[in-house]
Amino acid sequence: MKTKHIKLNTIALSIMLILLTFCLCGCAQVNFVTYHNDDGSIYEYVYLTLDEQSIVNYGYNLNNVKLEIQTNSHIEATNLINEYRDKIIHEYQSLQLSNDEYTTLYNGVKILEQDWNGGEYIIGLEFDSSSIYKKYYELLNGTTFNSNTKTIEKLFYTKTYYYGTTNYGDYSIFNRIYNYYTNTVFSTISPQRTSLTYTYSVSTRRFHSDADQVNLDANGNYIHTWNVEPNNPARKIYFYTISANRSVWIIACIGIGLTVCAILGIIGTIKYLQLKNKKTQIEID
């Protein structure tokens, strides 16, 4: 989408703790967010809110749990960036990248993290541009990053759909963290009342979607949010835009204008003839 088109194009994130919310406690709120900034950068992050009392009720030490989450989440994020950079180095050594391209791509992905604030924690990846974002997923997933689009042509407008999912493959932090926690630390806790949402931010109202809700934030961005079932993290989603067919509208406007002028001309002619006939009748009388 252009975010996936969406400012989308399209639109991403892969970062973690999501998993923790599945297997950690029965009461957690996770927002999975892809945020496209006005400078072209893209933020992908997980916003996690823990129910601290539930953690304690399950017999865990709250401070240890938070430290465990933060430490391992940061490690997994670092590992993903290092794997991406190894791929970039390989392409550079294979003479597939210029010096400038190598520098831009190598340094174009960073960790985005906000420390615990009570029961809230944020971690993700920051991409300097959409091209770096695309390169990251192409290299790590080993497939071409193609937008799945569908265009419907109408007489006066074109409707374009951009399809995607709320999951981004084996190299998303989501999968890394999910596997880590479910197989080790919190494998004994079953998920209950866990909620998961996926959020996409766009800067214009021209993008529409099948989101469960759309809100306007304080910065004037439109926030599209999908509710995702924890057992179906790859929920299919779509955006669509409607673009006017300018040539048709121009022709239509010209046609309407000429028609109006013709009608006014006919009315004017009729009025003129009526006045002329009336004047002639007066002279005859």
Task: Report what the structure shows.
The structure is a single chain. This protein has 285 residues and is of the alpha+beta class. It has seven helices and twelve strands. It has helices at 18-23, 52-57, 62-93, 99-106, 130-141, 173-185, 246-284, and strands at 3-4, 28-36, 42-50, 109-117, 120-127, 148-153, 157-165, 195-202, 208-209, 213-216, 222-228, 236-244. Strand 2 and strand 3 (42-50) form a beta hairpin. Helix 3 packs antiparallel against helix 4.
N- to C-terminal distance: 79 Å
Share of helix, binned: 40-55%
- What can be said about the biggest beta sheet? 7 strands, mixed
Write down the overall mean pLDDT: 74
**Strand order, biggest sheet?**
4-5-3-2-8-11-10
Shape: elongated
Write the layout of secondary structure elements.
Layout: E1 3-4, H1 18-23, E2 28-36, E3 42-50, H2 52-57, H3 62-93, H4 99-106, E4 109-117, E5 120-127, H5 130-141, E6 148-153, E7 157-165, H6 173-185, E8 195-202, E9 208-209, E10 213-216, E11 222-228, E12 236-244, H7 246-284
Parallel strand pairs: 2-8
Antiparallel strand pairs: 2-3, 3-5, 4-5, 6-7, 7-12, 8-11, 9-12, 10-11
